[in-house]
Amino acid sequence: MYEQTCGWRDLDGDTITRLVWLAEPPAQETVDPAVLAQRAVDSMTLLGPDVASPRTAGKYTVGVPMWMWVDQGATTYGPNTASASAGGITVTATAKVSKIVWRMGDGVSVTCNGPGTPYQASEDMAQSPTCGHVYSKTSAGAKNGKLPVTATSTWTIDWQGGGQGGQLTEIRQTNVQVAIGELQVVR
After folding, report:
1. Verdict on whether the full-model pTM lies above 0.70
2. Are 44 and 52 in contact, with CB atoms under 8 Å apart?
3. Where are the domains of the chain?
4. Per-residue confidence at 164, pLDDT binned at 50, 70, 90?
């Protein structure tokens, strides 16, 4: 029930006021499913890669293959799923890392489409089958004698709800530093 006042006047000069009944409730606020999808993603706490190798404490050698891999967790690699609701609509989003780009500190970038393969001592001097790099110079001239390595993950997020669906992308990174030495053969 609403009170409506019009600019009309009755015969006595008084403003006309009347009560109006509306059978339909006022329109509800429209909820954009894409906004709910972003809200779901924001609740996931997506992080940069959990770098297992190269390790900051490790020492690596010029000309020797370096195997690069990350540990997989819900917030560092995925999959990670969350939902958000408003106005009678629920949207569910699922995030997973689709690639990791490694900037190796020597001007080289390596793109890996998976978490990498953990190194096993039995592999000896073999190159990684999935994600690796070979340094050609030492890090002796770098700040603190270490090269800065940046691992940047691209999270691909698929969402659906409210009769819609779509895809979002989030970028996260992790920084480590590695020491690269050189071995000399003396005869």
Report:
1. yes
2. no
3. 30-181
4. very high
